[in-house]
Amino acid sequence: MGVSGVGKSTVAKGLSTVLGWTYAEGDAFHSAANVAKMASGHPLTDEDRWPWLRAIGAWMDEQIAAGEPSVVTCSALRRAYRDLLDAGRPQVRFLHLEAGEDLVAGRISHRTDHYMPASLLQSQYDTLEPLEDDEPGVSVSVDGTAPEVLRRAIDALGLADAPTDEHEGDSP
Ligand SMILES: Nc1ncnc2c1ncn2[C@@H]1O[C@H](COP(=O)(O)OP(=O)(O)O)[C@@H](O)[C@H]1O
Ligand SMILES: [Mg+2]
Question: For ligand 1, what atom is nearest to the CA of residue 142?
Answer without folding.
Answer: 1
